[in-house]
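Hey L., structure's done. Input below.
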Amino acid sequence: MPQPESPKPTRREILKAGGLGLLTVTLGGQWVHLSPAEAQAAGAPLAVLTPEEAATLAALGERLVPGSRKAGVVPFVDYQLAAAPDDCMLMIQYLGVDPPFTPFYRMGLGALEAAAQDRHQSPFAKLEDAPAEALIAAMAEGKLEGWAGPPPPFFYFVLRNDACDVMYGTEKGFAALGVPYAAHIRPPSEWGETS
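Output:
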């Protein structure tokens, strides 16, 4: 017998969870709070990105910041794109780009995918190291001919920040870098702590 769907959380509950670095997603008909890494491991459904865009984002994030795929860069970005612009925690919100932000990501990921297909007849997510790294270097330098998306170096900058946020924007992330965690205001919970 199917489980009844739990009531949708209130905006206040979603914002509180987001302040702790948690994503509010529905799994098996139940609303749950998960860290980006937990959402990645659980296969949380995408709200905005297509599976192809998610694969490109995961591959790009992993190449820009190793470990970001497992840390949940795809659920993090997808969840933030689905949020109201004022609640979005992506770096792009602070860089003078007007919302909605989904077209920026969709166009950038599409342009990268087109460049991979044009140069290597392969999806970006399936490229070997050397061709993928060459595409990323050309993107960062703004040297991709035929690019039909946001300015390539800007897109690189934004996506690298998203991958860094999900990987190192936590007390554990600071520790992995050997940097003392000295928050002016200590968060009430660790990023990803679910209890």
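The radius of gyration is 17 Å. The CA atoms of residues 175 and 181 lie 7 Å apart.

-- N.
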